[in-house]
Structures are given as C-alpha cells and as structure tokens.
Write a structure and sequence with these properties.
This protein folds into three domains: 3-180, Alpha-D-Glucose-1,6-Bisphosphate, Chain A, domain 3, CATH 3.40.120; 185-408, Alpha-D-Glucose-1,6-Bisphosphate, Chain A, domain 3 (3-Layer(aba) Sandwich); 410-543, Alpha-D-phosphohexomutase, C-terminal domain (TATA-Binding Protein, 2-Layer Sandwich), CATH 3.30.310.50. 32% of the residues lie in helices and 25% in strands. The strands form six sheets. Strands 2-6-5-3-4-9-8 form a seven-stranded mixed β-sheet, sandwiched between helices. β16 (361-364) and β17 form a beta hairpin. The structure holds 6-O-phosphono-alpha-D-glucopyranose (G6P) and zinc ion (ZN). 6-O-phosphono-alpha-D-glucopyranose is lined by residues 18-19, 113, 322, 345-347, 364, 366, 368, 487-489, 497.
Length: 544
C-alpha cells in the first residue's frame, strides 16, 4: 500500500504539559495538527522501527478518528507491530501494563484525563516510553523541538481498520493487532490481590459496593473485575458505559464531580464502599459510608496496610509522594523505617524511583495512587487494594482511617482551586509570593512562625536532573504548610491551587471538619497571596 509524505508547516503550540499535549478538540481538528504532533514523536525517537507500539485511548470524542490516523502513520513510519485496544479503548494503567508486558518501545495514549470531552471538550495525546511511564522531560522536550521544525509527515493511504473485532491484520511491514483492552490488566490485578478473599466478602450478602467510572474508560474494566471476576452484585458498577462526552459530565473523581456517587454514599442506606475513577482510569476516589478518604490519607493507609496484600507482603522498598500531598505517608514511612521521597507534581517524577527499585508505592493529592506494578497511577488498582484491606481487616472504611489517625496522628488537609482565572493575574500572584520568600522565614503569621518559605526545587536522586519552580511552600514550625501552585493540566486560563495542611497528634481533636481545622491557614493564605484581589473571586471554585 502507498505511503505518502504530506508537506506541512509547524504549529508553535505543541509543547506537552504535565501530562501530554492537551488541547480543546477544535485545536486538534485543525488540518495536520494531530499528524504533525505524531510525526514529531516519531522524529524525536531513535530505534523504534520494527518494534511494538501500544495504542489506545479513553474513548472520548475524536478518539476513533485519531486512532485511525495514528495507525496509518505508525505503518508509514515503519513500526513493526501496533497493539490497539478494541474499540480504541485502553485505560492509561492498562496501556502501561501492556507496554511493559509486550516490551513495546512505547505507547500513545489518547486522553485528556479528567477534563470534559465532546466536540467542545478537551482531547489529548500522551507518549509513554518503554518502561510504561509518561515520557520524561528530555523526551517531551525533544518532541516539542521536533514539532517546531517539522516539514512533512508520513501516512499510509488505506481504508480505516475495523477496531471492533479482535483481529490481526498485516499492513505493509506492520502487524496491527486489535486486542482485548481488559485481559492483561485483569491478570495483573489478580496476581497482586487476594481475589478469593475479596470475592468472599463481595458475595457474602453483608457488603455492598458502588463503583462509578463516570461514563469513562474504567467502565469495562470495573464491570469485568468487580462484577464478573469478584462477584459483586450486578449493578454495583454505575455509569459504566464509556461515552464520547462522558454523559456531559466532568470525569474527575472528587466530591464535586462524582455527584451521583457522593449522593449515594452520603445518603440513607449507603453502601459500605464507594469509589470512582477518572476519564482515563488512573485517578481514584475512595469513600466509606458517609465518609470521604482524602487521597493523602489513602496513600498513608495503603502503605501502613501493604503487608496484608499478597503483592506487597514482603514489604515496601520506599514510598514517594508529590510535594503538595500531605505528609501522612511520611509518618508511616518513618515507622516502617523506609525512605519517603518528595517529588514535584506529575506522575512522571516517580518513574526513576520506581525503575531504580527505591519506591514501591507512590501517591498524589490529585487523587492518584499507584505502585511499581505499572508506571502510571492506577485507579482500579487502588480500589482493589482497599477492598483487599477491608476483606482482611473486616472493619469499615471509616474505622480503618480513624484507627490510622489514632496511631499516626491526623494530617488535616484541603485543596482550594480557583479555576479559569486570567493567566497574567495568576502569574502576578505567584510573583508576588516569590518576592516575599526571602523575608518570610522567622516571621510570625497569626499564631504561627514561618519555618521556611521557598519555591520547591527537586533533584532527582537517580539521575541527578533538576526541576525548578515547582510550587511555593510556606512551612510553619509546627509542621503545618501552605502551598501555592498553578495547575499544569488546564486548557483555558489558569488555575490556582492552594494546598493547606496541619498536623494534629491528639486523637481527641480528630473529629473536626478540615475547613474548620484549617481556617486560620486559609486566612493566612489570603493575607500573603491576596487571592481575592488577583483572582477576582471571593471563594474557590472547587474544594477537596
Ligand atoms: C495529571 C498528572 C498527575 C498530576 C496532575 C496535576 O493528572 O498525571 O500526576 O498530579 O496532573 O495536575 P495539575 O492540574 O495540578 O497540574
Ligand atoms: Zn487521568
């Protein structure tokens, strides 16, 4: 079949962000836009010809169109084998699992994660490397550089491939295999968790669960694993059919956007366990009956109970968390006598620690938890981990978390988001903070003394690479913190994230609402950053 080289001109805005190239759908629909970026990926790589590429996405609008284009470009660029999920579907963690299992040179995952989809929504392209993880900065920079000089792309002239049947097709030198998106991932989960024990609980008649994939990619995975393999009652998975626009919702598992689930879990007759995941299946939220588990606490609980789970029973090499994530897991690490690493926001920063065997569990406040089983965070993995712990401990979610606080103390935590603000104002706010950093240490703010104030810099302990300006931290002498960061995942304007944390060792004080427990820090944040003035908002748009 014929391979064409189509001449093209560079676009100047193809710099991948925190998690790939993410833009509104109409941007991707511009002539040659997607093709340029895909060709830039191939141009930036060496030594991929004849090797395997994994391809799939979260099923959002434009997924199928993009898959057809990428398949034809992969053939034209000499990829040896393309493994594509049936229906164009692969969750991000499943793609990572398949890249590792098949020793692929990488994967292209089509997703804008938790951002809304549909013709006016967002679309995205992520490139993962052979370890199954998001491309590190040196790779994404090379892709960006390649995108700036591109003059043409290669594409096969061929009819569309049937994505809905498990088939193997030969196109020129390339084998295209449409694979079951769930099977390999499900086997991996079964190798880590005690499925017999979980099944006993789920079929006991005394335990109800509700999993809400928010009409996104985890639907088929959750139906298969929870209902078919583990015996949860049919209907335990709600909103489980992936839709191109996620049913008009915002596929982000938090207390605001997972409203059906939250209503159920905080209503009368709530199930024992509730969970949700995001657009591409890497995020998770865990709820007990009328009880929310913060992602930071979830990471700490998983670390403290890992010995109860077959895949982790021999202990953890270390743990890692992103800088704005609470220090709850640090206390567990201390007790276990293992290292706890603090990295910048973005799962890619865990890659080296996982590859080097220095960390086993990782987590982020942004509803991400995962381990060395793949190189992405993994929503269903976290949910199964919790179910395994519940099955062994035979306690409620709330009791497990309260026990945890009793042992380790409670890190009160909250994140306030100011979405859709003007980028120039957001940058000014951050500059305003930067200009105060030098003089803050030693100062008294309200009842608290500033211990340190800095813009977080990270030196990767494995390869020595340095990442600067990763968020402004103001730490107080009692261990409390205020952190300010601008989101790296939005597509319109800027989002300011304010992270608040305080530590309470006294278990008689563990019952407060975090917004009350953190009220003084919320006021201090306003005082130092002038949030109202710069954002023009009186209150955050989302509080988690
Ligand atoms: C994506 C990444 C996460 C990261 C998050 C931060 O989801 O995969 O690793 O924590 O973005 O998003 P933000 O909007 O805060 O930059
Ligand atoms: Zn995601």
């Amino acid at each position: 079949m014929n391979v064409h080289t189509v001449s093209t001109q560079p676009f100047s805005d193809q710099k991948p962000g925190t998690s790939g190239l993410r833009k509104q759908v109409p941007v991707f629909q511009q002539r040659h836009y997607l093709e340029n970026f895909i060709q830039a990926i191939f141009n930036s790589l060496e030594d991929y010809q004849g090797k395997t590429l994994v391809l799939g996405g979260d099923g959002r609008y434009y997924n199928r169109t993009a898959i057809q284009t990428i398949l034809k470009m992969a053939v034209a660029n000499g990829v040896g084998r393309v493994l594509v999920g049936r229906g164009g579907i692969l969750s991000t963690p499943a793609a990572s699992c398949i890249i590792r299992k098949t020793r692929a040179f990488g994967g292209i995952i089509l997703s804008a994660s938790h951002n809304p989809g549909g013709p006016e929504g967002d679309f995205g392209v992520k490139f993962n490397t052979s370890n199954g993880g998001p491309a590190p900065e040196k790779v994404t920079s090379a892709i960006f550089e390649a995108s700036k000089t591109i003059q043409g792309y290669k594409i096969l002239e061929a009819p569309d491939i049937d994505l809905d049947t498990l088939l193997i097709t030969q196109l020129n030198e390339t084998t295209v295999e449409v694979i079951d998106p769930v099977a390999d991932y499900a086997d991996l989960m079964q190798s880590l968790f005690d499925f017999d024990r979980i099944r006993d609980v789920l079929t006991s008649g005394n335990f109800r669960l509700c999993m809400d994939p928010l009409h996104a990619v985890t639907g088929p995975y959750a139906h298969f694993l929870l209902e078919e393999r583990l015996g949860a009652a049919p209907g335990s998975v709600q909103n489980g059919t992936p839709l191109e626009d996620f049913g008009g919702g915002h596929p982000d598992p938090n207390l605001v956007y997972a409203h059906d689930l939250v209503e159920l879990m905080f209503g009368d007759n709530a199930p024992d366990f509730g969970a949700a995941s995001d657009g591409d299946g890497d995020r998770n939220m865990v709820l007990g009956r009328k009880f929310f588990v913060t992602p930071s606490d979830s990471l700490a609980v998983l670390a403290a109970n890992a010995h109860l789970v077959p895949g982790y029973k021999d202990g953890l090499a270390g743990v890692a968390r992103s800088m704005p994530t609470s220090a709850a897991v640090d206390r567990v690490a201390e007790k276990l006598g293992i290292n706890c690493y603090e990295t910048p926001t973005g799962w890619k920063f865990f890659g080296n620690l996982l590859d080097a065997g220095q960390a086993t569990l990782c987590g982020e406040e942004s509803f991400g938890t995962g381990s060395n089983h793949v190189r992405e965070k993994d929503g269903l993995w976290a949910i199964l981990f919790w179910l395994n712990i519940l099955a062994v401990r035979q306690q409620s979610v709330e009791d497990i978390v309260r026990d945890h606080w009793q042992t380790y103390g409670r890190n009160y935590y909250s994140r306030h988001d100011y979405e859709g603000i003007d980028s120039a104002n957001a940058n000014q706010l951050m500059e305003g903070l930067r200009s105060q950093l030098a003089r803050l240490p030693g100062q008294q703010l309200g009842n608290y003394e500033v211990d340190y104030a800095d813009d977080f810099n990270y030196t990767d302990p494995v390869d020595g690479s340095v990442s600067k300006n990763q968020g402004i931290r103001i730490g107080f002498t009692d261990g409390s913190r205020i952190v300010f960061r601008l989101s790296g995942t939005g597509t319109q304007g800027a989002t300011l994230r304010l992270y608040l944390e305080s530590y309470e060792p006294d278990s008689s004080q563990h019952g407060a609402d975090p917004q009350d427990a953190l009220a003084e820090f919320i006021a201090l944040a306003e005082e130092v950053a002038q949030i109202r003035q710069y954002t023009g908002m009186n209150a955050p748009t989302v509080i988690t």
